[in-house]
Amino acid sequence: ANLALQEGRLAAAQTELNNAQNQLDEKQMELDQVQAMYDAAMKEKQALLDDAEACRRKMNNATALIEGLGGEKLRWTESSKNFRNQITHLVGNVLLATGFLSYSGPFNQEYRNLLLHLWKKEMNNSKIPYSNDLNLTSMLVDNATVSEWNLQGLPNDDLSIQNGIIVTKASRYPLLIDPQGQGKIWIKNKEKNNGLQ
């Protein structure tokens, strides 16, 4: 009888245990769902924080760039103005440069300057715009080329550099009257690698 009584109690306890286990399983399932929702929310929060930080960095970089470029505005405005002036004066400058290349070869520095002065006067009468501060040497050749010519033996005075420009840029073959032999030395050094005869 005692055994039967205890077996009844055991069955009742087992049923209660099964009910409690089922309830625990349900609560664990709910907890897992809530934990998954929490993890997803935390992940989304972290992604938003990362996006906000990236956006803040981009804004700081953009602000720095805008401030840096603001300082360049004056230089760009000045450069734009200079380019407009160059375009306006281009025809006259090119006319002076071609006149120099075509006609001033045989003459000394003084007569070349006189020719330029006369041409500018004629251009003023014809209302052809040109740059008042035009430097034909810097327009027709860069400093690196002039330095290379100097290393090859061309003297560094204005007349010699102008002669070098005429020799290298003019469409006609130049005739060098060269009593000191400086032009000959320069041309031999300049054309050494080209098999000059």
TrEMBL record:
It comes from the Eukaryota. Residues 8-119 form the Dynein heavy chain coiled coil stalk domain. Keywords: Coiled coil. Pfam families: AAA_9 (PF12781), MT (PF12777). GO terms for biological process: microtubule-based movement. Residues 148-196 form the Dynein heavy chain ATP-binding dynein motor region domain. GO terms for molecular function: dynein intermediate chain binding; dynein light intermediate chain binding. GO terms for cellular component: dynein complex. Signal peptide: none annotated. The keyword Ion transport does not apply. Residues 3-58 form a coiled coil. PANTHER family: DYNEIN HEAVY CHAIN 1, AXONEMAL-LIKE PROTEIN (PTHR46961), DYNEIN HEAVY CHAIN 5, AXONEMAL (PTHR46961:SF19). This is Dynein heavy chain ATP-binding dynein motor region domain-containing protein. It comes from Bambusicola thoracicus (Chinese bamboo-partridge).
